[in-house]
Specification:
eight-stranded mixed β-sheet; about 375 residues; Rossmann fold; binds 2'-deoxy-thymidine-beta-L-rhamnose
């Protein structure tokens, strides 16, 4: 009989939590043939990355996943699944946990953690934590980049099969977005970051760049900041603005798998948070991470740990240029000085992206690791 999985997701802010859970749910259904129910407390945010989700419905099926609105109080009479994923410590409903504890065979209960490249991750991966008063055990599952961690989410949308998504497919995809073909020396860039990033400095650096630059900006708060730079309030989809070497085009906020495709069409991807950060790596294109800011500057350690890992096999000058640009992007510092050095490594970074994907591919992916772990517990 097919195993049943429940994934619980609260949308803290933005799109990352539901972005990851939605990817994972589809992967468990399509590749591991599991029956998956995804509980989400914010259907409107969900519908931004998955426009086929009807946010007025409390139950619906999409891509083989049963999507349920997580209401408060939680629905009565719900039978817990064989495996329960609590995404990012979102706290399962009390009533659901009580039923879990009453079942003769307790479900496998996994808390899916945020991704980090820090060394301690492997030591904490899969550690059990007994519930204080129910006879249940929760396991902490840490995604990561190295052996001994839970690995990275890798889906069919991520895998850049060069034979399928070739130049022709790329041009067709961009045409659908009304993005014109680039001139031979022009660079195509996708821009997704938090609106605290030093956008004005970067746009100025781009306008003075040695290469012509065509930037695609999805609708949202960044579009407003970029629009303001050009004295254009509320730039609409399709608006194109110019300054010096820079062309900015405002595009729609895309459906998640389309966004994955966009990443594979660009010369540089500016990404953020966790999910687009992982997708950008699978796209094998040069990328720049705007990390989600955390209390006590915990994100700085996370950023440095990833930089150490990612640049480890680069030649020193390239590693220095990457580190300098990423740090200036995250710390609002000296963008005009770090961009030209970073840009100079464009071709080398592109090649490095292929090697990086090869390195990541030597580890088992997150969904497969979760399935294996659950099977070992049952
Ligand atoms: O949106 P994010 O900032 O999300 C998160 C949340 O802030 C979360 O609380 C925090 O814990 C986490 O970051 C670290 O960034 P992220 O993770 O990249 O998620 C963005 C999602 O939006 C991702 O699934 C890709 C998707 N997306 C689209 O589907 N279409 C688009 O056009 C764009 C730009 C993104």
């Amino acid at each position: 009989m097919k195993q049943h999985w429940d994934i619980f997701c609260t949308v803290v802010d933005n799109y990352g939590d539901i972005g990851i859970c939605w990817r994972l749910a589809r992967e468990l259904v399509s590749r591991h043939q599991l029956t998956v129910r995804l509980w989400v407390d914010d259907m409107v945010t969900f519908s931004h990355i998955a426009p086929n989700v009807n946010f007025n419905k409390s139950q619906q099926w999409l891509n083989g996943v049963e999507i349920r609105y997580w209401s408060h109080p939680f629905e009565e009479g719900i039978k817990p699944a064989d495996v329960v994923i609590e995404a990012f410590a979102c706290k399962l409903p009390e009533s659901y946990m009580t039923v879990m504890a009453e079942l003769p065979l307790h479900p496998v209960w996994i808390n899916l953690e945020y991704l980090s490249a820090e060394n301690w991750v492997a030591n904490y991966h899969c550690l059990p934590s007994p519930h204080p008063y129910l006879s249940l055990v929760k396991y902490f599952f840490f995604p990561g980049f190295s052996l001994g961690t839970g690995g990275l989410l890798r889906t069919k949308h991520h895998l850049s099969d060069k034979n399928i998504f070739d130049d022709k497919a790329r041009s067709k995809f961009l045409q659908q977005l009304n993005v014109r073909a680039c001139m031979p020396s022009e660079l195509r860039i996708s821009l997704f970051c938090y609106d605290t990033a030093p956008l004005n400095e970067l746009l100025t650096a781009w306008s003075k760049s040695t290469a012509s630059i065509h930037v695609m900006v999805p609708q949202g708060s960044i579009a407003k900041v970029v629009g303001a730079y050009f004295h254009c309030s509320l730039p609409k989809v399709g608006t194109i603005l110019h300054k010096g070497k820079l062309t900015v085009q405002f595009i729609p906020f895309l459906e998640q798998s389309e966004y994955d495709q966009l990443l594979r069409c660009c010369d540089f991807n500016f990404i953020r948070g966790e999910d687009s950060f992982v997708s950008a790596q699978w796209s094998a294109r040069p990328f720049v991470w705007h990390i989600y800011p955390q209390a006590d500057n915990a994100h700085q350690v996370k950023l440095e740990s990833f930089l150490d890992l990612y640049t480890a096999k680069m030649i020193p000058s390239m590693a220095a240029a990457v580190r300098a640009f990423w740090l200036s992007w995250n710390n609002n510092d000296l963008i005009s000085e770090t961009w030209p050095d970073y840009l100079a490594f464009h071709m080398a970074l592109k090649q490095y992206g292929d090697n990086w994907v090869r390195q990541l591919n030597t580890h088992t992916d997150l969904a497969s690791n979760l399935v294996q772990f659950a099977e070992n517990q049952i």
